């Protein structure tokens, strides 16, 4: 376990205080050149602004300056887990994203159906984005084989994406990807990167070879590519570290899966912010930490839809008073990373953050935005530090050292 | 030794420049809800404000965001020692606090006289805060035993508090506390947490058993609790690292003790700021680093006395011109942690900091306060970095690297 988590584990105590973490996926943005304002600065968010005025603000750096995080590191940091120390493989991430129940010892790989030509060279890494329906059929063809005592479970994800889970004795991750991440070349062989991974490499290679045969007549999905062979990371839970009883309220499965990896209980919910707040109300007495996830801000950013991202902020802002009626002892509004509509994807830019509690030391920020948060009392700081701050503000940490 | 100290040790040089570190214990605060102003913001401190205007300001984070430090980690950080790497046990801290001369190999534990009922269950962890006088008597009864060749020295501290120092061959710390930190249970056995600590565990257990017999008729102080078994940490000295000749001017013994642990010489002084400044003047030519400690701000905070904390700041501020007449090359005004009167105890909040020297790069801060320091040129930064900054500003560090 990372040493600073060890310290938190030693000094954390249970107390009645409740912590609410509201995460806007892809919260941060970039200014529209016509107005000079980011999505968040463009949005009319009187409730967030009032909360910023009452609270303390800053900008979080998800992983490190200049580093654009994926969803997993972005969220792990918000939960207090150093995203470099605790890495989650692509295979595991896809598996938890479809609520696949990974067993101890399982190795999961992310798969793509792809197209190869007669010479075996990749002509399309996504097999023309084959439909989920077709992909599901093809997964059935590949599913359930046993090679060298290892069962291979193949489950569709969406479109060309699937997972292959290798279940059996003696499987150790540490093998190369068969996905070369480019076209015009043959799929790469899966090779062991260390001695103990040889069995997995051998089984995976034979699985790929058999898949080639099985799919031969299914052009454009006539081959597969595997990457991110990984095992369940078995992270220390938030219960162990913080002595919290945490719950996740998220409309999208991947975020529920990520939260489950750190021991949160999943509360079934609809995807709209109103649904999530209703779920929160129903379960408010049973937990002392809630992670509420708003996916739509990231999707709008990824689509390059500046105005839609603005609207999401305004919608959630309107719903905020209902949420604040619960009077959580600590409320944090955060993002896992920036997703500027101008960039149509995740980015490295620091993310606006606010924390409001009876014991926060309010700063002079009166507006929740990128430019206002620069002057906040928390400064520009690693996202991994928000959980210790929340714990302190909920009076859930005792003194460190004599 | 922590790696950044290794670097400083390599590049530090002796020069005539003098560094003055003025520490307000528990400097940082929280706003009074009626005024929105902290203790420091409420205080009229024209001299500190002028110094802030001439200097460069920031907020220091004593250990890490959200972590509330004890006195030892708070001060070690100010002296440049990473407080997580260099930890000081509770037993040692109490021992240095009463100027007890710990020998190499000694293991010190912090003791409490406590009350147990007929079933042996703890009914009061502090024996009704037995008087120092009575406690001193009881310590004499326990003092001077030899068990398995180990001499046990028992010295009173104050009220129910004492230290037990175990002196003999083969004693290694790494034993559990007998103090369960709660009532209604029996004292815990002292057990070895590692093989080498078995001798200490055995001797300490027998000492506790004998103490129970000796104290049986001394209700309410009819039992003892021990915790924080620890050895002198043997820190590298400030002389070794910084090539400084450092001195401490502190009215309270614990801070003199902490300073001695890093090799400062103790200058006898009265507890008032005027006494401390007089001591400074008398000794100004003989040292090149001075740590002046103001305890009263912390005590006022711990007592929840907002107004008294305000007055302490104003008092010290009035005395400041006298101190500035000495024209130290570098003056720093810092705190080991925050002690908001609103919280009646140490807290995690960052601490106002200012550094003034001919070579600092002044920022636009013109007021020494929590909210003003947020915008300072040093930003929000780890307290452990103030010593390298002071050394640089005193032109006592040569270039790093080719």
Mean pLDDT reading of chain A: 95
Structural class of chain A: alpha/beta
H/E order of the elements of chain A?
A: HEHHEHHEEHEEEHEHEHEHEHHEEHEH
Sum up the overall morphology of chain A in one term. globular
**Helix coverage percent of chain A:** 25-40%
Tally of DSSP helical segments of chain A: 14
Approximately what portion of the residues of chain A adopt beta-strand conformation? 15-25%
Strand order of the largest sheet of chain A: 10-9-11-1-12-13-2-14
Low-confidence stretches of chain A: none
Largest sheet of chain A: 8 strands, mixed
**Biggest protein-protein interface?**
A-B, 29 and 39 residues
Give the key terms:
alpha/beta; homodimer; 14 helices; 402 residues; 6-stranded antiparallel β-sheet; 8-stranded mixed β-sheet
In words, what does this structure look like?
With 402 residues, chain A is α/β, with parallel strands linked by helices. In chain A, 32% of the residues lie in helices and 20% in strands. The first copy, chain A, is built from 14 helices and 14 strands. In chain A, strands 10-9-11-1-12-13-2-14 form an eight-stranded mixed beta sheet, with helices on both faces. In chain A, strands 3, 4, 5, 6, 7 and 8 form a six-stranded antiparallel beta sheet that branches. In chain A, strand 6 and strand 7 form a beta hairpin. In chain A, helix 5 packs across helix 9 and helix 10 packs parallel to helix 12. The longest helix of chain A has 19 residues. The interface between A and B is medium-sized, with 29 and 39 residues.
